[in-house]
Amino acid sequence: MVELLGKSKEELRAFCVEMGEPAYRGGQIYHALYAERKFDFARMSNLPLALRERLAKEARVTLPEVKQRFASSDGSVRYLFGLSAGEEKRSSTEDTEKNQKRSDGQRIPASVEAVFMPSEGRQTICISTQAGCAVDCHFCLTAQLGLIRNLTAGEILAQALLPLEEHKAELAPAFEAQGKQTNIVLMGQGEPLLNFEPVMEALRILLDPEGVGITPKHATLSTSGIVPGIERLAQEKVRPKLAVSLNASNDEQRDALMPINRKYPLKTLMEACKNYPLRPWEHLTFEYVMLGGVNDSTDDARRVVRLLAALKRVKVNLIPWNPGELPYRESSAEQIEEFRRILNDKGVPAFVRYSRGRDVMAACGQLALLEIGPQSSASRVS
Ligand code: SF4
Is 378 a residue whose pLDDT tops 70? Predict the structure, then answer.
C-alpha cells in the first residue's frame, strides 16, 4: 500500500503514471486531498469510480488518531495526536547527542500536539514538526521528552488538515471563500530546522494556492537559532516567515537557558539574521519568553536593543511565562510593560503576546508529558 498523504503533486502524478493512469489524475488526487480535504477515496468525486476503487486497494491516506481534545474557555482546542510507528530518520542538518540515541532505525510510535486557536476573522493552527525535541531549552517541557522521532511531511500536514476539516462549518465563510484567513505556526513540539526536508515538503503543500492555500504571509516557522538551517531556509523558493526564539540578552544568559547557543552563539546567530533575505512585506520576528528575575530587567531590554540594532525590519514578541512545573516565575505586568517601552522607545517594535489556551496547558509538550510522563525520555524509549 502506498501512503499518499504528504506526497507532492509531482509525486502523485508519477504514482498515477506507475499505475498506468494519466498523470493529470495525480493533480486531481492532490486537489482532493489538500484543497478539499477528502481523505477517503470514495469521496474523491473528481475521480472515476474505477480509479477510486483501485486506490482503495493499492493506496492509503493515514491520518493520525485524535487521542484527546482539550477545549479551552477562550475557544482554543488542543489536540493530542497519536502517530503510528514511523521509520526514524536522523536529522539532516544536525547530529546532536540526543538524535544519535535515536539513529538505530527503530520504528517508534509517538504523540504530538497541535492547537487550533480561533479569533475574530481568522484562525491560527500551531503544529509540531518532531515528536519531542533534542534542543533542550531549559524553559520548555518538550525538552524533557528528548527527541522521540522526526515527523513525516504527511504527519506535519495532517495536524493542519484535521483541525481545518473539524472546524469547517464555523470557518467556512472565512477560510473557504477567501482562503487566506488561516495562520499556520510551526511552534509546537520540535525544532523545525532539524527536520528540514519533511518540514519543507509539508510547507510547499500548505503554501501552494492549489494545495492547502495558506499564503506565506500567514505561515511562521520558529527556530531556536539553528544557523545552518536558517541559511538553508533562505535559499528556498517557497518559505514561511521566520521567527527566532531569542529569550536572552547575552551569551551567558542564553547558554544557561538554551544550550544550543554554545554551538551558535549570538554573534553567529545575529549575523545569519542580518543576512536573511527578507521579502518586501516581511519582518524578522524575535520571540522572547519573559522569565521573572532571569531575563526581564531593564538592562536586558537595553541589551536586546543593542543586539538587534544592526538588523532591519525586526519585531519582538514578549511572551509572559506560563507558570507550571518548571522552576521559573512570571515577570510582573509592570516589568513586561517597562521592557516593551524600552524596546519601542529605541525603535524596536515590541508586542506582548499571551499564549492562548492557558487553561488547557498551552506550553508546547505539556499534553505529551501528561500522557507519557516526563521520565519517558529518548533514552528510556529506545
Ligand atoms: Fe525544542 Fe522548541 Fe522546546 Fe527548544 S523550545 S526544546 S527548540 S520544542
Answer: no
Secondary structure (DSSP) of 299-357: HHHHHHHHHHTT-SSEEEEEEE---SSSS--BPPHHHHHHHHHHHHHTT--EEE-PPS-
For residue 354, the model assigns a pLDDT of 79
Instruction: Give CA angle at 337 (333, 343), nearest 5°.
Output: 150
Compute the average pLDDT of residues 281-301: 96
Pocket perturbation via mutation, ligand 1, pick of 129, 133, 147, 246 by most ligand atoms within 8 A of CB: 133
Q: Domain residues for 15? A: 2-60
Whether residue 143 has its Cβ less than 6 Å from ligand 1: yes
Residue 207 to residue 209: CA distance in whole angstroms: 6
At residue 76, does pLDDT exceed 80? yes
How many angstroms separate the Cα of 1 from the Cα of each of 5, 52, 55?
A: 12, 14, 9
- Predicted TM-score (pTM) of the model is 0.89
Using a 6 Å cutoff on CB, does residue 195 contact ligand 1?
A: no
- Whether 21 sits among the annotated catalytic residues: the reply is no
pLDDT band at 258, cuts 50/70/90? very high
Place 357 in a pLDDT band, splitting at 50, 70 and 90.
low
Count of domains observed in the chain = 2
Whether 273 sits among the annotated catalytic residues: the reply is no
Residues 272 and 142 in one domain: yes
Higher pLDDT, 350 or 89: 350
Q: Which of 21, 88, 94, 113 is catalytic?
A: 113
pLDDT, tens digit, 9 for 90 and up, residues 113-148: 999 988 877 888 999 999 999 999 999 888 888 999
> Is the distance from the beta carbon of residue 189 to the nearest atom of ligand 1 less than 6 Å?
yes
Higher pLDDT, 312 or 372: 312
Task: Determine whether the shortest distance from the Cβ of 364 to ligand 1 is under 6 A.
Answer: yes
How far, in Å, is the centroid of ligand 1 from the Cα of 133?
A: 6
- Residues 79 and 49 reside in one and the same domain: no
Whether residue 11 is found in the same domain as residue 73: no
* Ligand 1 atom with minimal separation from the 224 CA: 7
Cβ atoms within 10 Å of 305's Cβ, excluding its own: 19
Q: What is the CATH number of the domain that holds 98?
A: 3.20.20.70
